[in-house]
Structure formats: C-alpha cells, structure tokens
Design goal:
The protein has about 190 residues and is an alpha/beta fold. The protein has five helices and five strands, in the order βαβαβααβαβ. Helix content is about 35%, strand content about 10%.
C-alpha cells in the first residue's frame, strides 16, 4: 500500500519554549510569524497547484497558521492525531528540573518508556501510522496533504516514510526540522513494527 504525498511545515517558534520540555503544552506563537508561515504555504500551494486545504494540530502553534489560511478562504481541519508527543508531567517543565535518572530510563527503553508518564514513542508511531492509513482511505487520497505539524510528529512520519523498522536506540533519532521548514514526504508502509 502506498500513501499520499504529505507536505508538512513545522510550526513557527513558540513563545516561552527555550530550555523546556514541550509536547502538549499549548504555547502561542507571534501572530506575525504565524501569518508569515501561512503566506509561504499559500505561495507553495499556488506554485504547485495544491488544494487550499490545511490540516493542523489543535495546539495554537500549529492551529494559528491554519486559522490565518482560513481567513484567506482555505479549509482548515484540526486533528488531534497531528498533536505533538505527550510528555506527561514533564510537559512544560524546564529540562533542568526533570530527574536525570528518568531521562536515562527513557533513553534506555526508547520505544516503550513513556516519558513523564505520557505517551511512549511506539504510541506516537502508531498514531502517525493510523493517520496515514486514514488518509489513504479517504476520497481524493492522491491529492497532497498540507500540514502544519510538530517536530516529533514530523520525525515519526518521516521515519515511517523512509525506514523499514522502528528505531531501537535513542541515538538513531534524527535531528528535528527547523521552525517553518517544509518536508515533502511520501513512501512505503513500514515493513515491521
């Protein structure tokens, strides 16, 4: 089974994120930065004749970009499946305040340890894979999906697009895309999960 092309932009840099573990913490972005990214997405859609439909996480750092596009006549769909990984009680905390032994435990059991009691990485991969499968089932699945997403979600999606097995070690986890960066992703189903 193949999956539709996905063009995912990482949300603009949120206010107050520096030095903190940020997953589901709902940080805002500067309105001008959200508008600037929306403009870039609109230009890319015009250039490539893509549909004027944007999918975002409900978290403000993504949804604000979608809301701006909606003001310009786009359809905006918010989907909780596009949310960032849930870091439980770590979420929103300064990294310096999180117990080093707990971080080490997560690194030692990278796929199945739920950091801060939140969502483990395997659950994130399952959520991303389920979203991809749902896209495949929808009418017009050949049309590209345009997203404003989070780094963890984008990394998991990219992994599913390019790898044949899930990561087994934290050292395998790739570097996050920069804020506002677009990744175009399309690929095969993961062979073994």
């Amino acid at each position: 089974m193949t999956y539709p092309t996905c063009c995912a932009w990482r949300h603009p840099k949120p206010k107050g994120a520096n030095g903190r573990c940020i997953g589901r913490t709902d940080l805002c972005v500067d309105r001008r930065k959200a508008k600037r990214l929306a403009h870039r997405i609109r230009q890319a859609a015009r250039r490539h004749n893509w549909p004027r439909v944007i999918y975002t996480s409900p978290l403000r750092r993504c949804a604000d970009v979608g809301r701006q596009l909606k003001r310009w006549g786009w359809r905006h769909h918010m989907d909780v499946a596009l949310s960032e990984m849930d870091f439980g009680i770590w979420d929103g905390q300064p990294w310096s305040a999180i117990n080093t032994a707990q971080v080490d435990a997560w690194v030692a059991d990278f796929m199945d340890c739920a950091p801060g009691g939140g969502e483990d990485l395997r659950a994130l991969f399952q959520r991303v894979a389920a979203w991809r499968a749902a896209c495949q089932q929808e009418a017009g699945a050949d049309a590209p999906r345009l997203l404003v997403a989070h780094a963890g979600w984008m990394l998991a999606h990219q992994w599913l697009c390019t790898q044949t097995a899930l990561p087994t070690d934290a050292a395998q986890w790739p570097v996050a895309p920069g804020y506002g960066v677009c990744w175009r992703m399309q690929a095969h189903a993961l062979a073994s999960q």
